[in-house]
Amino acid sequence: MNAEYAYFLRDQDGDGVVDKPNSATLEEFRYASWDILMAGGYFVTGFGTTYLGGKSDPGPFNVNDPRNNPAEEDLQHMKAFFTSIEWWKLNPADSLVTGTGIHYCLSELGRQYVVYVRGVRDSVILKFGSPATKIYSVRCFDPREGVWTSLSKHVSWTPLILQPPDDDDWIFYIQEVSFDAQFPTFTDVTTVSGIIVESSGTHGVSIADVDGDGDPDIYINSQEDSDIPLGHYKGNFLFRNNSDGTFTRIDSIAGVQDIASYAHAAIFFDMDHDGDYDLAIGHGLDGLPRRGLFRNDGSGMFTQVDSIAGFQNTGDIGTRAIVAGDMNGDGFMDICFSSWSGFDMEYYWGDGTGHFTRQFGLNDPARAIQGMTMADLDSDGDLDILMGNFDTDDGIGYYQNNGEGVFTRVTGLGLPDTGNRSETVNLGDIDSDGDLDVLICGYDDHYDLYRNNEGHFFKIQTFPATSYFDPGGIGVDNGAFGDFDNDGDLDLFLPAADFKLWLNDGSGFYYPIPDSLSGLLYEIRDARFPALLDYDGDGDLDIFLTQHDGPAMLFRNNIDNSNYLRIRLTGVKGDVGGFGTKAWLYDGGFAGHSDHLILYQEAMASAGYCIQHEPVLHFGVGNRSTVDVVVKFLDGSSITLENVTPGQVLNIEGGKASCDISGHVGYYSNQAAIRGVKLTVFQDSLKFVETDENGNFLLANLQGYKNYTLRPFKPPDSDVGEFTILTYDAALTAQAAVGLRQLTDYQTIAADVNKDGKIYTYDAALIARYAVGLPKLPSSHAGQWVFIPDSIRYEPLDSDKTDQNFVGILLGDVHGGWSPPGSLSRKGIKRYTQLKDTTAFSGKRIVIPLFIEENQGMISCDITFRYDPKVLKFVEVTKTELTQGFELLYDLDQGKLKVGLYGVNPINKAGKLVKLIFEVIGKLDQSTLLSLDRYQINDGLVRQTVAVFRATGEREPPKNFYLEQNYPNPFNLETVIKYQVPKAGKIVIKIFDLLGREVKTLVDETKEAGYYQIVWDGKDKMDNDVPSGIYLCRAQFSGYVQIQKIIKLR
Description:
Elements: E1 7-9, H1 26-38, E2 42-44, E3 51-52, H2 73-83, E4 91-92, E5 97-98, E6 102-108, E7 112-118, E8 124-126, E9 135-142, E10 147-155, E11 160-162, E12 170-176, E13 186-188, H3 190-193, E14 202-208, E15 217-222, E16 237-241, E17 247-249, H4 251-254, E18 263-269, E19 278-283, E20 291-296, E21 302-304, E22 322-325, E23 334-337, E24 346-350, E25 356-359, E26 372-375, E27 384-387, E28 397-401, E29 407-410, E30 424-428, E31 437-443, E32 446-453, E33 456-464, E34 480-482, E35 491-493, E36 501-504, E37 510-513, H5 515-518, E38 527-533, E39 542-547, E40 550-557, E41 564-570, E42 582-587, E43 597-602, E44 611-612, E45 617-620, E46 627-632, E47 638-644, E48 648-653, E49 658-667, E50 678-682, E51 686-690, E52 696-703, E53 708-713, H6 727-737, H7 745-751, H8 761-772, E54 785-788, E55 792-794, E56 806-810, E57 829-831, E58 838-842, E59 845-852, E60 858-866, E61 872-879, E62 887-893, E63 896-907, E64 911-920, E65 927-937, E66 942-955, E67 962-963, E68 975-981, E69 985-993, E70 998-1007, E71 1010-1016, E72 1029-1037, ...
Parallel strand pairs: 14-44, 41-48, 49-56, 57-66, 58-66
Antiparallel strand pairs: 1-2, 2-3, 4-6, 5-8, 6-7, 7-12, 8-11, 9-10, 9-12, 13-40, 14-15, 15-16, 16-17, 18-19, 19-20, 20-21, 22-23, 23-24, 24-25, 26-27, 27-28, 28-29, 30-31, 31-32, 32-33, 34-35, 35-36, 36-37, 38-39, 39-40, 41-45, 42-43, 42-46, 46-47, 49-52, 50-51, 50-53, 53-55, 54-56, 59-64, ...
């Protein structure tokens, strides 16, 4: 746009007359344009046709107008800015902004604000001018480049500080943010869960799986009136998780009621490294025993052992905080009990057996310690400690570890070093940069959030406590970091705030969800102690809250997704919980890439003042399908898991270099052991074992924390006994196909031999073919072994796995008749009495019928019949009238005939089932054993018998005159002509050509009854070779004539 043609419609000097400069430089024009717009005016070009409006009309700023200079892009950026927002709702509001330099403000109060600054070297401050508490997004617009930059979100109860990048002109756009429709909601399930606390109030809460069943149990410290005489306390509460969403109180029988009571802090930790959670308790009032220590026997039953644990008698001075972990780097659990002002702390090193020795490398006797938390704050590989204070003016105590268990306070790193009522701290990686940020609780009426930047801390956000905060009655003692919406960043629960649930926007900024939407509705009665757990095992974080002067409450998280990964840790020396272990979660395939870090967490015994979260690291993963996990233990060893599938709990054990997988393979119908099943796993190479004679297997010394898939395999047709797959299975399948029988799930798998997911009579036919030994069709999988499950996936293999059992199914064995090799039919053997010895002449056909008795309910019959093929020639097997509705199949193999017969409608009548037909080809007195090896109705008794057949002589005399076809035909040199005559008489056999001319007489004589043959050498009566062609062989006997056609080829 040409500046020399521009004029501005604005009363610049306030005299009521619109001023009109004659000309301006481009920079002046741009600045003046923003001034006009932000003041609610508008400007036009000298042509009067192309204009850029302001408050009243945005104008059709035509960038393609040839009279406009296209190089003046910043004017186009101005147009783009205003057309991207609801500019027409804005009004001048310069009074909302204070600061140096030139600044203007347009606003739609409570909804959107535009702040224009120029020549500002410091920050300007925007007050929102609306009483409602809202969340706003803050973006910065560069008018020179037309580029937007997202800055942060802001909650409107505090003014917004805006810092321009330099003293050029910049535009800030602040817009109200609507609530995410996916925020988590909670339901109070205290009553239905069975948690009943008989106390006017409770103190701390600690969560752990004390009985080793995989579910978190809850220990609550009773907050009873300090005026109650000693010996009259009711004690604490231990609620065992019943794994069904309910709890049962067991503290009395478990031995941890701790009648001394007025317990403040309590933590579960594995003091003796035996793989279960022991319990340490600290009593908060002077005059009570300072601490208690209880050893877990592994089942959730405890014995008090503090008198023999090596603790010194330091007097009955109250303690309000406990931390536990490996503080001196020897791998064993150490413990520290806090003190009150004027007394020494109790700091002990453990030896891994449950015995402790007092140390003095950690002490702050002047501090009134209200809460302690321990983690590696300076990222140097050892555990540091943060201490709060109740009423001493020494701020937060940050004690760095020298790696050997000696702690030194450090100051000047950004955390408050002075001031009181900084009662405790909570830790979490709010911005996913791989270090722990700090929430300070208890500063007057608010919480302060500090970002960790390479060991230095900067306050970035403040959260007010409840609007009716009473310093004398409501404590701002704890928050709780946790990914409540499973999106991959840490959200925040503030139990004593007007807004309880605060969601992370992904950058470390928190915005609130109103209680009416989150469901976290309760009367705040000094709500100090929130603990996080997944009590119902559904993969999200639930909240257990105890109040100093009110009831304990359990809130169930209603998020319904599998966007999580939970890690249950065991340290390198067997300490369950693995406190001090670090875990990084990355996008799948990007382990170790900081730009792909999703979240970093540390396993901590104490999460703040008198709270212990469930000692399982909970990661939300958003919508990721795979993630990588890196775990580093305090001894420096690490484990990397790649492409882990979310929606599961990983058990990761430090020092576990190898793992075993063992289990059993049994048959589906009778649980019989299946030997010879090959179990394979693949990681870097293939490894396998086979099941032994008892069906058991062991894959030993597999590399730990790698992904494995365990698959069973057994070759098709192996160990398939003769009595395993019957035509009875085909009959069962056919009945199921037509709806006459209901199969079990395993039987359905066995019947579906073509693996199409359906049961048809075609499956029955394929099974019948297999039963009688016919070749399998390409679609048939009969005789193939399948296993349920087909595989077991370990992502990763994080511990020894026992009882990894499989069920074997042999396809086709619908009745479940398989048994290990060498065993007989499970039904036994019975003699069949109807097969008799017999004789017959050579050439005669014999029929061997097989019979059935009545009331057999027959739907199938399997037959195996053996004979000598040199004596008998098989002709056919036929059904009878009784079995016309049945399917019949057979297979013949060198004197062994297998027959199968099956149908869907049972036969209960007596009679003939089948007829076996043979032709006698043996010579005089030649005999064969007829062996009925198997005659089995359904899957019943196998009937057997033998009989003898003997050929009685030469062939039986023919009954008819017959001239057989010559062989071979066509022929070249000679051919054989067979004929038979039924009685004595003259027979004439001659060869003729097709013209009827006689070629040669072969036979002209009288013959006795019998079988004869003659050879024609292809020559005529002159003994000359006849030419190639067709000839007729004519035989005449006793007035009968028969003719066969003969073909001669040369």
